[in-house]
Amino acid sequence: MARSWVENQRLVGRVYHVQRQVRLARRQCRLVAARLEQHGDDYCVAAQRAADAELDVRDDGGAPGRRAAAAETVPKSRLKSEKKPKRRLNEPKRPSNPFFQYCQEQRGHMLSQMKGQSPAGVTKAGVTKQLAANWSRMSAQHKQKYVERYEEDKRQYAIAMQKLQSGGTQGTSGPS
């Protein structure tokens, strides 16, 4: 008995759905194994093997070497428990690197220049790309002004942090 086109489409959709569920389950197993590994438990390998044996479905098109590599990967993004600590209110801001200082200085000029050329298509991303292209074309002599400014801000930041850590009060919010 031949299957109709609709039945075939349902089966294909179901296969894709199951493959997605398998990938999600494997990802969750790797996350749990990574957290257990952080606590010194050697459960990582056993958990992945158990998940692979239980699911017994390949989501990588049948390539035998890829399954072993997937078991060793750990998510690179920060876990929720590893969030970056918030900056204290009286703690000074870290200085901007030379490129960011260049962008802050040149952004207004670049915006007005780009609006003159094409007023409708100016975006922040486009301005930043243009600034990055200009920065990469700049010579080291032209960049030196921003590097020196960064070094000075870095010295001021270090002094402000020393004052803060030694218990002194900080009147300003640090270099901007």
Automatic annotation (TrEMBL):
DNA-binding region: 92-165
Keywords on record: DNA-binding, Nucleus
Coiled-coil residue spans: none
Species in which this protein is naturally found: Amphibalanus amphitrite (Striped barnacle)
HMG box domain mapped to chain residues: 92-165
Designated name of the protein: FACT complex subunit SSRP1
Source species taxonomy: Eukaryota, Metazoa, Ecdysozoa, Arthropoda, Crustacea
Pfam families found in the cross-reference section: HMG_box (PF00505)
Cellular component annotations (GO), alphabetically ordered: nucleus
Region annotated Disordered, chain positions: 56-99
GO MF annotation: an example: DNA binding
Gene that this polypeptide is encoded by: SSRP1
Keyword Nucleotidyltransferase set for record: no
Family annotation (InterPro entries): HMG_box_dom, HMG_box_dom_sf, HMGB
Comp. bias intervals (Basic residues): 77-87
Classification via PROSITE patterns: HMG_BOX_2
